[in-house]
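Reading a protein record of the kind used here takes only a little practice. To see the layout at work, look at the sequence and tokens printed below.
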Amino acid sequence: MRVGDRHFRSIWLEQDGWSVGAIDQRRLPHDFVTVRLATSDAAADAIRSMLVRGAPLIGATAAYGMALAMRADPSDAALDEVHHTLIGTRPTAINLRWALDEMRTLLRPLPPQQRTAAAYARATAIAEEDIAINQGIGRNGLELIEKIAATKKQGERINVLTHCNAGWLATVDWGTATAPVYLAHDRGHSIHVWVDETRPRNQGASLTAWELGHHGVPHTVIPDNTGGHLMQHGMVDLVIVGTDRVTADGDVCNKIGTYLKALAAYDNGVPFYVALPSPTIDFSVADGVREIPIEQRGAEEVTHMTGQTADGRIETVRIVPDGSPVANYGFDVTPARLVTGLITERGVLKPDRAALAAAFPERTAAAAE
């Protein structure tokens, strides 16, 4: 997507053909910095520290991390070690495990001397596949937006509410929840996005608003608790969010606060859609509330905030009294009954086992093995 006059992906192979470039998302929106990852440990740290984040991008980064490891040491022991290290970096997003298992399944039968080239080829393919998936999500989600546009008066805007960042920064390019928005905007539709700030890391205010602004999409940043009010007053036409894991029965695990948006949408008759790339489906899990591990992150994300001062300095300040305990759950689960539909690369699906299995039979077969 665009950053100024240049096109960027969120991750790429550098010109040397082996090291990996990425955007340091911890520095946004005030400072655009790219980094070079030259080891698998650096890739693991990038995931763990949220230099890169978003389920699809985590998967792509992990795949490149395994390629970097094979370049350094293509032995069986190194393959097992890097798989173990990378899989422990983030517990909730299933794309991480999916990508690592894809890589290990490919590499294990190969002789060591063939593993490096194969690893880079598969990691690059995973990145390209992510872009194609997101473009498919965009086309299918665009149809939903255009149906709403057909009910509007000439020039009347379509209001989309989203939560966290499910944009191109969370994927390799295009994004999941934002892909339909970008396509609608590029086709000339009058589309506007309500951007939840998404405490405590503020990925909506810091990342989604930043990328929408660079693409020229009209948007408004709102406090997390504003969405229900907007829905009550007819100011939201549809909600589109991303996801870090979807169960076989259609439960959706996404950034903390998503469940509350789904409840408000349900109460006000606002369609609630989830943009779902197929590697995010976990056919081994049925009940999201009981079975999906929810990451608990450090207290400092809640107790402190980082921002830019009036004179341009980046400062971190404490906002919670010393001694007050903090709980910081990273995700919550929205039951399938609250989801209007799942926007996938193969169409808009009902959030249930039959629809997911019919659309992605190869994934159900793999899960059964």
